[in-house]
Design brief:
34% strand, GMP Synthetase, Chain A, domain 3, 17 strands, Alpha-Beta Plaits, 7-stranded mixed sheet, Rossmann fold
Length: 332
C-alpha cells in the first residue's frame, strides 16, 4: 500500500497538509516507530518520501443511516423523521410506507445507539380524560418509565400515564428566565412539573401553584421535586378551572394544554394581576393566527380588561401548516 515516511517532529504538520490536499487515505491506522511516522496515502506525494507499507485497516461500525440503506430505498430514506429522545427511550413516528419496516428500523437503531434501551412508536390514538398518547413497543426493554434530563434538571415519568414532550425544553427554559423575584406563579396544567420545577430552580418566585387533574402526574411531580430539590411548589390535583378560584391572583400563569387551553383562558384572565402575563399555548394553523389573536382580545373584553400580545412563537410543527404556538399575553 502507498505511504509516506516523515520524521516524528514533522508528523502533525504533515498530517494537516495531507488532509488539506486530499491525499491522506482514511480507514487505515497511522503508524510510528522511534524516529518516523508513516502515513497511508491515496497516491504518490511529490513533496515527501514515498514508501510501500502494510497499514492496518481500522474497523468502523456502520452508522444508523448506513445500516438503514441495506434494506430501505432512497425514497423510503427520505420518509424517515426525527425521533424524540426521552431519557433512555426513543420515540419514533412512521408513515404508512415505513410502517412495515418499523420493527427492523427500531432494532437497527438500538444496535447503533447504545445509550437507548427502548424504542417506542407513537400511536395516532390519544385516549382517556387525560388525553395520554398510546405507544407501540418496537424494540428493547418493554418499559415506558424513564428519567429525562434537560437544562440540568431531571424528570422521571411514565409515558403511558402522562404526556411529555422534550421539544418544549427551550420554551420551558425561556419562560423560567422571565420570572421575577417574588412572583406568584400558577401552572394550570403542570403534568410532571417541567415548567414549575424549572421556574422554582432558575428563578426566585414567591410560590408556584402546580395544578393537574391527573393524579399520576401529580405523584411524579412530587417525586421530581425531591429529585431536583425544588421547593416553593404546591402540587394541586384537580380541575384548573375550579382550583384557580381559590388561589391568589398571579403575576404569571402558564397554560400548556394546547388542544383545549382556550376553554380555560377566561378563568386565567380572571385570576391574573394587572400587568401580569399569561403564557398561552395553542395549536394554530398559519391562516388562523389572526383569528386566535382576535379570540384572545375578545376574552379579555368580556372581563373589561385589555390583552396585549407581547410575543408569538412557533415552537414546533404539529401537522402541515400547523404549529404548536406560544402567546405571551400581558393583561391590564
Amino acid at each position: 500500500m502507498k505511504g509516506i515516511k516523515v520524521a516524528k517532529d514533522q508528523g502533525e504538520k504533515t498530517r494537516k497538509k495531507l488532509m488539506e490536499e486530499g491525499l491522506l487515505k482514511t480507514g487505515y491506522r497511522i503508524v510510528s516507530d522511534d524516529e518516523n511516522i508513516y502515513f497511508p496515502v491515496n497516491e504518490e506525494v511529490p513533496w515527501a518520501e514515498n514508501v510501500d507499507y502494510e497499514f492496518e485497516a481500522i474497523e468502523r461500525d456502520e452508522t444508523f443511516e448506513e445500516k438503514l440503506r441495506e434494506f430501505l430505498s432512497e425514497d423510503l430514506m427520505l420518509q424517515m423523521r426525527t425521533f424524540d429522545s426521552i431519557g433512555e427511550i426513543a420515540v419514533m413516528e412512521f408513515d404508512e410506507k415505513l410502517e412495515p419496516y418499523s420493527k427492523r428500523i427500531a432494532k437497527t437503531f438500538l444496535s447503533t445507539h447504545k445509550h437507548y434501551s427502548t424504542v417506542l412508536a407513537k400511536s395516532s390514538s390519544i385516549s382517556g380524560k387525560f388525553r395520554t398518547r398510546e405507544y407501540v413497543h418496537l424494540a428493547g426493554k418493554k418499559s415506558t418509565v424513564t428519567r429525562h434530563k434537560e437544562y440540568g434538571l431531571t424528570y422521571e415519568m411514565d409515558l403511558k400515564k402522562m404526556f411529555f414532550t422534550p421539544r418544549m425544553a427551550n420554551e420551558r427554559n425561556r419562560v423560567s428566565q422571565l420570572v421575577e423575584n417574588g412572583d406568584i406563579i400558577i401552572d394550570m396544567f403542570c403534568g410532571i412539573g417541567p415548567f414549575s420545577i424549572s421556574i422554582a430552580k432558575n428563578s426566585r418566585p414567591k410560590i408556584v401553584y402546580a395544578i393537574d387533574m391527573n393524579a399520576d402526574a401529580i405523584e411524579y411531580l412530587k417525586r421530581n421535586m425531591i429529585i431536583n430539590k425544588a421547593g416553593g411548589i404546591i402540587p394541586i390535583c384537580g380541575d384548573a378551572k375550579e382550583e384557580i378560584k381559590y388561589l391568589p391572583h398571579a403575576d404569571r400563569i402558564i397554560m400548556n394544554l394546547p388542544v383545549t387551553a382556550h376553554e380555560f383562558l377566561y378563568s386565567a384572565m380572571k385570576n391574573i394581576k394587572d400587568d401580569g402575563t399569561i403564557h398561552f399555548y395553542s395549536i394554530v394553523k398559519d391562516d388562523d393566527l389572526e383569528g386566535v389573536k382576535h379570540f384572545i382580545h375578545e376574552r379579555a373584553k368580556q372581563l373589561r380588561r385589555e390583552a396585549n400580545i407581547l410575543n408569538v412563537i412557533k415552537i414546533k410543527p404539529y401537522s402541515p401548516y400547523t404549529y404548536l404556538t406560544s402567546f405571551d399575553i400581558k393583561i391590564t
